[in-house]
Each structure stands twice: as C-alpha cells, then as structure tokens.
C-alpha cells in the first residue's frame, strides 16, 4: 500500500510559477516510479510528467516540456513538480501517482497503482 498526499496548488496569474509537492508513505519510496497527471473540467485525465525511482530519468508531455520540471528527494519521500510560465490551459486538478511495479519513468495511466487526492491549480489570464 502507498498513500500519496499532494500540496502546493493555488491561484496564480499567467506567466507565474507554482511548485507542487507529493509526500508518499507506505512502501519504500525509492523502489518505484512516480508521476504527475492532471484533469481539467470536462476532460480526461492526462499525463504531465514521470520520473524514475532514482530521479535519474524523467519524461514529459509535449505541452509542458521546457516549462515544468519533475524531481524527487527519496530521503524525504517526496516528489515535486515545478511549474513555470504557467498558462490558463494549465488549469486543472493535479494528481500524484505511483507505479510500484516499475522503476522507470513512463506515461501509461493504466500502469499507475496509487493516486493522491489531487490539488487544484488555477491560472488566470
């Protein structure tokens, strides 16, 4: 079992920045991959970024590449999503996810076993 708790969401103007955090508990954090997904109203949940167990490799959706950075600190059981140059279309509920069967970064929604409760990010124009 893995429990994930996100924080750091909020309201920001276009062009601004936010950093999301996700603290994990349960299984050994350094043994599995984690990722961030988001879901806007009326849309399906979509992949944002993924990171390997060690943090050595990361994978991004084209829509956020160059603006968002995923990272993790295994000693703190925490994965981060630094979001810069935010756009109104980034508005969504952001979810942290864990794939305890994989150590590599990936975007496969089905592969993630555990999910946090989500944190709202709203970008005003």
Strand content: over 45%
Describe the sheet with the most strands: 7 strands, mixed
Instruction: Give the ordered list of helices and strands.
Output: EEEEEEEEEEE
Mean pLDDT: 96
Number of strands: 11
Radius of gyration: 13 Å
Structural category: mainly beta
**What is the terminal-to-terminal distance?**
40 Å
**Overall shape:** globular
Share of residues in helices: under 10%
How large is the count of helical segments?
Answer: 0
Residue runs with pLDDT of under 50 for 5 or more positions: none
Give structural notes.
The protein has 125 residues and is an all-beta fold. The chain is 0% helix and 50% strand. It has no helices and 11 strands. It has strands at 2-7, 10-13, 18-26, 33-39, 46-51, 58-60, 68-73, 78-83, 92-99, 114-115, 119-124. Strands 2, 4, 5, 6, 9, 10 and 11 form a 7-stranded mixed sheet that branches. It has a 4-stranded antiparallel sheet with strand order 1-3-8-7, with no helix packed on it. A hairpin with a 6-residue loop joins β5 and β6 (58-60). It is globular. The model has no long low-confidence stretch (mean pLDDT 96).
């Amino acid at each position: 079992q893995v429990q994930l708790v996100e924080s750091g969401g909020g309201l920001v103007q276009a062009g601004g920045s936010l950093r999301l955090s996700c603290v994990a508990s349960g299984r050994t954090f350094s043994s599995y991959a984690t990722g961030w997904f988001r879901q806007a109203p009326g849309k399906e949940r979509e992949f944002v970024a993924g990171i390997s167990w060690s943090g050595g490799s990361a994978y991004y959706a084209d829509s956020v590449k160059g603006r968002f950075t995923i990272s993790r600190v295994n000693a703190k059981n925490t994965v981060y999503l630094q979001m810069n140059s935010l756009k109104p279309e980034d508005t969504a509920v952001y979810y942290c996810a864990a794939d305890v069967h994989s150590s590599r970064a990936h975007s496969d929604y089905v592969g993630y076993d555990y999910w946090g409760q989500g944190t709202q990010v709203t970008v005003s124009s």
